[in-house]
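B., you asked whether I could sanity-check this one before it goes into the benchmark set. Here's the sequence:
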Amino acid sequence: MHPPALHPTAAPHPAALNRGRTPASGRLGPLQAPPYRQAQPVPQTRRPAAGLLAPEEHQLLLLLAEGLPLDAIARRLSTSSRTLRRRIRVLCDRIGVRTPLQAAVWAARRGLI
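And here's what the prediction gave me:
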């Protein structure tokens, strides 16, 4: 068991209660709530889908999210697999992710797919 002075629920110093000051120094102002008690959660920012991605990029994200192999996506988009890989790389660079899976997760978290 903790000694009373070190216990987290121990009563504050009586001088602090009487004068509204901290026990460490009588020169300090009234006690205030610690900053962490005043903190508010940071709201998640959701950008609107309109204007964020080109229609072709949105379609590519939808196909990536389906989990199709790249060859199947290339056939659906009527493009070569090499062009598709370049488009995926450009899209990933633009949104700041490294892999097609991360791109799909990025889009899902923003409600784009």
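One thing to flag: The helical segments are 14-19, 35-38, 55-66, 70-76, 81-95, 100-109. Otherwise nothing jumped out at me.
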